[in-house]
TrEMBL record:
The lineage of its organism: Bacteria, Bacillati, Actinomycetota, Actinomycetes, Kitasatosporales. Residues 395-406 have a biased composition (Pro residues). Its cofactor is FAD. Keywords: FAD, Flavoprotein, Oxidoreductase. InterPro entries: Acyl-CoA_Oxase/DH_mid-dom_sf (IPR046373), AcylCo_DH-like_C (IPR036250), AcylCo_DH/oxidase_C (IPR009075), AcylCoA_DH/ox_N (IPR013786), AcylCoA_DH/ox_N_sf (IPR037069), AcylCoA_DH/oxidase_NM_dom_sf (IPR009100). Residues 261-386 form the Acyl-CoA dehydrogenase/oxidase C-terminal domain. The keyword Acetylation does not apply. GO terms for molecular function: acyl-CoA dehydrogenase activity; flavin adenine dinucleotide binding. The keyword Lyase does not apply. Belongs to the acyl-CoA dehydrogenase family. This is Acyl-CoA dehydrogenase. It comes from Streptomyces globosus. Residues 6-118 form the Acyl-CoA dehydrogenase/oxidase N-terminal domain. Residues 390-413 are annotated as: Disordered.
Length: 413
C-alpha cells in the first residue's frame, strides 16, 4: 500500500479548496441552505463543469472522469471542510453506483451521463432512521428489515396488467428528497408469498408523487418526506425481477462501504477545519493579559483533539484504499468531529454558545451524521461482528438469547 497522494489527487484537492474557499464560506453556507433547493446551484454547476466532481468515480464510457472511488473519498475531505451543501452525497455516492450496479445497459446509458455531468440529481428514498441499516453500516442489509414488512409498511409495488409498475407508500427523512430530479425507491414487490425488495426509478414530475421538505438539525443535509400515491415507476434492472432477490441488498451493502469512507472523509475534513478555527481564535483571544491559547490546560485539550484528528485521517486513508474498512473509519471520524465541534464551542467561550455562531454548523453536522449513519458504538459493534470477534469459541457456551418481556412483566427466554 502506498499512502502518498498522486499528483492528480493533490490537484483535485487543491482546486477544490481554492474554489470552496472563495464560494463556500460560513455565511454563504447559511444562505445556500435556506434556498428552495437547499444548495447553491451555480456552485454545483461550477464544480460539475470545472472539476467533474459528481462524475469522479463514474467510468469514462458514461461521461465520468473515470477515477477510482478513492479519489472521490479524498476529494470529499475538502467538501467536508467547507460543509458544502450539495447533492454530491445523494447523487454521486449513493444513486450513481446503484444505477451502475443494477441498471440495464439502456438505463446506464440514459442515466449515468447526466448524473456524472451534474445536470441530473438523484436521491435514494430510504427513510433516514433505516439508512445506516440499508447501507450495511450498523446491520445486515440483506435482512431487508430496513425496507418495512412484505405485506405492509415501507413502499409497496404492484405490476399492472399492461406491465407497468405502480408504487404506493411513503419514506420520511430522505436525504435531498425534496429537490432531486429522480428518486431511487426500494419497494416490496411480488405480494406476501414472493415478496422481494426491488429498486425503482421515479421521476420528479411523476403524477402522484408528493415531496415535502422537513426540518432537519443539520440544514446542510436537507431531508424530505416522500409520498407515493399510486406513482408510475420503472424497475431498475434487466431480466426477471425475481430472479436475483438479493441483488438490491447486495448492491446497497457495496455502496455502503464506499459511502462510509466518503462520510468519514467529510467528517475528518470538518473536524480539521473546526480545530483550525479554534486554534486561530485562542491565539488572539486574550484573558488575564495573555492569549488563552498560552494556558497549559487549553494546549492539552487542543493536543488531544489533534491526536484524534490524525487518527481519523489515517483511518480515512486506509478506507480509501480498502473500502471494507469504511465503517471503522466512519466511527473514528465521527467521534473526532463530535469532540472537535464540542471543544470549539467550549473554547470560543460565551460567543461560542450562541446558536448563530459558526461553531454550531460543525456541531450540527456531527450530531446529524451520528443520527443518520451511526451511532459510533453501533458502527464498531457491527464491524466487530463482521470480523468474527463475537463468535463463540470451541467449547464455549453460546450467546444467550435476548429475554422477551411477557404480559406478566417477567422475562422469558
Amino acid at each position: 500500500m502506498d499512502a502518498a497522494f498522486t499528483a492528480e489527487q493533490e490537484g483535485i484537492r487543491r482546486t477544490l479548496r481554492e474554489v470552496l474557499g472563495r464560494r463556500c464560506g460560513p455565511d454563504r453556507v447559511k444562505a445556500a441552505v435556506r434556498t428552495a433547493a437547499g444548495y447553491d446551484r451555480e456552485l454545483w454547476e461550477q464544480l460539475s463543469r470545472e472539476i467533474g466532481l459528481p462524475g469522479l468515480a463514474v467510468p469514462e464510457e458514461y461521461g465520468g472522469v473515470g477515477c477510482a472511488p478513492a479519489d472521490l473519498v479524498l476529494a470529499c475531505e475538502e467538501t467536508g471542510r467547507a460543509l458544502l451543501p450539495s447533492p454530491l452525497l445523494a447523487t454521486a455516492v449513493l444513486a450513481a453506483p446503484l444505477v451502475a450496479a443494477l441498471g440495464s445497459a439502456g438505463q446506464r446509458a440514459a442515466l449515468l451521463p447526466p448524473l456524472a455531468g451534474g445536470g441530473l440529481t438523484a436521491a435514494l428514498a430510504v427513510p433516514g432512521p433505516a439508512l445506516s441499516a440499508a447501507l450495511g453500516l450498523t446491520g445486515d442489509a440483506a435482512a431487508g428489515e430496513w425496507a418495512g414488512g412484505g405485506r405492509a409498511g415501507g413502499v409497496q409495488a404492484r405490476r399492472a396488467p399492461d406491465g407497468a409498475w405502480r408504487l404506493y407508500g411513503e419514506a420520511a427523512q430522505v436525504l435531498d428528497g425534496h429537490s432531486a430530479d429522480l428518486l431511487l425507491v426500494p419497494a416490496h414487490a411480488g405480494g406476501f408469498a414472493r415478496s422481494r425488495v426491488l429498486l425503482f426509478v421515479v421521476r420528479a414530475n411523476a403524477e402522484g408523487l408528493v415531496r415535502v421538505r422537513q426540518t432537519a438539525l443539520d440544514e446542510t443535509r436537507p431531508q424530505a418526506l416522500v409520498q407515493l400515491r399510486d406513482v408510475e415507476a420503472e424497475w431498475l434492472g434487466d431480466g426477471d425481477p425475481f430472479g436475483a432477490p438479493a441483488a438490491v441488498c447486495g448492491a446497497l451493502a457495496a455502496v455502503g462501504r464506499t459511502a462510509a469512507a466518503v462520510l468519514a472523509a467529510e467528517a475528518a475534513g470538518a473536524a480539521g477545519r473546526a480545530l483550525e478555527r479554534t486554534v486561530e481564535y485562542v491565539r488572539t483571544r486574550e484573558q488575564f493579559g495573555r492569549p488563552i491559547g498560552s494556558f497549559q490546560a487549553v494546549k492539552h485539550r487542543l493536543a488531544d483533539l489533534y491526536v484524534q484528528l490524525q487518527a481519523a485521517r489515517s483511518a480515512v486513508c486506509y478506507a480509501a484504499w480498502d473500502p471494507a474498512q469504511g465503517g471503522l473509519a466512519l466511527a473514528q471520524a465521527l467521534e473526532a468531529l463530535r469532540l472537535a465541534a464540542g471543544e470549539a464551542i467550549q473554547l470560543h467561550g460565551g460567543i461560542g454558545f450562541t446558536w448563530e455562531h459558526d461553531a454550531h454548523l460543525y456541531f450540527k453536522r456531527a450530531a446529524a451524521d451520528e443520527l443518520l449513519f451511526g451511532p459510533v458504538h453501533l458502527l464498531r459493534a457491527h464491524a466487530a461482528r463482521q470480523a468474527g470477534l463475537f463468535a463463540p469459541g470451541p467449547g464455549s457456551d453460546p450467546v444467550p438469547a435476548t429475554p422477551t418481556p411477557t404480559p406478566t412483566g417477567r422475562a422469558a427466554v
